[in-house]
Amino acid sequence: MQHLANVTELKARLEAPAIEVEGLSHVYAGPDGGVKALLDIRLAVGKGRFVVIVGPSGCGKTSLLMMLAGLLQPSQGTISCLGRPMPKPDPQRVGVIFQEASLFPWLTTLDNIEFPLSLRGMPREERRRRSAAMLGLVGLEGFGERYPHELSGGMKQRVSIARGLVQDPPLLLMDEPFAALDEQTRMTMGHELLRIWSTTEKTVVFITHSLTEAVYLADEVLVMSARPGRIIDHIQVTLPRPRSYEMMATEVFGQLRERIWQQIRRAP
Amino acid sequence: MTRAQIIATRLALLALVLGAWELLPRLGAINALLLPPLSQVLTTLVELLGRASVQEAVTVTALEVIVAFVIAVPLGALAGILIAENDYLSEIFKPMLFYVFSIPKSIFLPMFILVFGIGFQQKVAYAAFTTGFVVLMSATAAVESVKPDHILVARSYGATQAQILWRVYVPSMLPFLLETMRISMIFNFTGVMIAEMYASRTGIGHLIANWGENFQMPQLFAGVIVLSAVAIIFNEAVRALEARCSTWRT
Predict the structure, then answer these.
(1) A142 falls within a domain
(2) Structural domain boundaries enclosing A257
(3) B218-241 pLDDT, tens per residue?
(4) 3-class secondary structure, A35
(5) Cα distance between residue B128 and residue B192, in whole Å
(6) Residue A229 pairs with which residues in a beta bridge?
(7) Which of A212, A218, A226 has the alpha carbon at shortest distance from A258?
(8) Which domains does chain B have, with CATH numbers?
(9) Which residues on chain A place their C-beta less than 8 Å from a C-beta of chain B?
(10) The dihedral of CA A202, A208, A214, A219: what is its sign?
């Protein structure tokens, strides 16, 4: 399956890709030689693309994301985001949104959103301006002074997204952000995310378990095998944008889903 | 039950208890020498509060409580945090601490008397020792209660170690620690009282012990009332502080 990936990679390379990963392997230390989490990962993500990574549980996709975020260093291989390596987190370059909203319960919504800015020592007025703008972008005007425990799951994730966007990083990493939500909220949030994304030129790497979510959101889907994770397929989703719910009922959609599922099932 | 009914019931219960305290000794149902009627206790109380010696005793006790608390809480918290954070220290100290924690601290009192003699320092030291332990154990638990997710988020946004400490650990631990403070205050008070009643020349506990030994029951009860009032005041003060800082807790 690697030859399928090469063509796209080459193309991405010609246009100075947003993300380049080369020969990446990772082993977690432990007894019996440790756990091989990732094996020889090689990929390129073009600028402005929405790339989704799908794979079975434990395939290493979260580890891969952690490395792209600079939160973890790989045992082997190189990572380059926007042309530079990631030795440590760089929130102005790469924004990360996690599965559990992980909002700080002792801060209000606005304070949570501007948290990254306050770490940098930005003055209060400027912070407020930006966080208020983000609040509007994710559709939560009026909820600025609420505390997380007063918000629903979907709303908390919106705040989490707002927080990830507040420093306007060109690259956004999202680790199953909608996993903890019910199906209906998930669909709405996915649609919302696409709307927000379409107003920016950000590059997004999105991890999910859901095949439907993958096809619905993505420009490209990278399919990973079970542990140790390798990329076993690279699918272009040519459905037109903006995406609509009706597309989910089309044959093309079904075929793409089926293809992903076959790949995951077949991989040893 | 409506609010009015609840308050009415409480008042009724209070009246019942106070009424019994007044009437049963007067009617001879309980020996008035052992349990003086409420009115007698209250009169004694008013008289005692007027005395300089009693006022001094209350002040001394209050001072001991405050000083012991101010020493114990920061030291205990710091030690608890260090032990929780440092794996090496954790390995060594945690099991030992658990064992020592189960020993009733009052048996150490004679040792404190040997080292400090009898007086302000001895009582403060002993109370601080008792309270410090409680604070330490709770601080350790508080550190371990900080969610790793929150730390990860802070890291992903480029927070330095200091920022993670002040912006994530401290706010996370604050409600836990405040709750601990309330309980520690109770332990603290008990510690001071035990020290005063066992071997002391000043303080309310000493007076109470004295009155008890000399069978001055009205004074004894009056003293208990004063003591209870002081304890409640301290407790409520910490509780108010806790409530103010925990507005975000569900």
Answers:
(1) yes
(2) 2-93+169-266
(3) 899 998 898 888 888 888 888 888
(4) strand
(5) 9
(6) A38
(7) A212
(8) 41-245 (1.10.3720.10)
(9) 69, 71, 88-91, 96, 98, 100, 102, 104-107, 115-116, 119-120, 147, 149
(10) positive
